[in-house]
Amino acid sequence: LDGGGGNDLLQGGAGNDRLLGMFGADTLLGGGGADVLAGGAGADRFVFATGDSLPARMDRITDFAGSAGDRIDLQQMDADTLLEGDQAFTLVDAFTGAAGELRIQSQANGFVLIGNTDSDAAAEFRLLVKGDLMPDYIFF
Fold first, then answer.
1. Which CATH number does the domain housing residue 80 bear?
2. For the chain, what is the domain count?
3. Is 113 left (phi over 0), alpha (psi -120 to 50) or beta?
4. Is residue 2 part of a domain?
5. Residue 41: how many CA atoms within 13 Å on its side-chain side?
6. Which of 80, 79, 78, 31 has the alpha carbon at shortest distance from 59?
7. How far apart are CA 31 and CA 98, in angstroms?
8. Is residue 55 part of a domain?
9. pLDDT in tens, the chain (140 residues)
């Protein structure tokens, strides 16, 4: 699914989608499946909800430019599925096994954003990000 020259809203479905924003300040929502997301030029927002970008179906952002205004939005994701309501993530250096932990792990070609939502040792959210990811570029 390709955007155009404006500020587009691109929304994938349950399958493995490829979303390309092109120009403008685009909003990309991959949905379920292992999605490939590219915002293109402009300050883009990549939005994730509970159940998106699972470890077995990890999404990939291929052109993240946080210094140019791109942002990752996790505000629709419940960071602690064991509590009633909608909890926000807490950024940590290492997992302790507590729900609500979010970690940025550096790797050769970018970063992996990893989230734990249910108080066990395994992550329930995993996102591959190619680009300049810093904590200030994430809304949670």
1. 2.150.10.10
2. 1
3. beta
4. no
5. 5
6. 31
7. 25
8. yes
9. 999 989 999 999 999 999 999 999 999 999 999 999 999 999 999 999 988 999 999 999 999 999 999 999 999 999 999 999 999 999 999 989 899 999 999 998 899 999 999 988 899 999 999 999 999 999 98
Residue 122 covered by a domain:
yes
Q: How many residues does the chain have?
A: 140
Residue type, 71: R
Q: How far apart are CA 113 and CA 88, in angstroms?
A: 15
Residue 105 lies in domain: 9-139
**pTM to 2 decimal places:** 0.95
In whole angstroms, what is the distance from residue 40 CA to residue 28 CA? 11
Q: Is residue 35 part of a domain?
A: yes
Paired with 61 in beta bridges are 37, 129
Q: Looking at residue 136, what DSSP letter applies?
A: G
CB neighbour list of residue 56: distance below 8 Å, 6 or more residues apart: none
Can you give the pLDDT at residue 13?
Answer: 95
- Tokens coding 51: 């159940």
> Both tokens of residue 111?
């970063």
Please report, as a single letter, which amino acid is at residue 138.
Answer: I
Predicted confidence at residue 119, as pLDDT, reads: 87
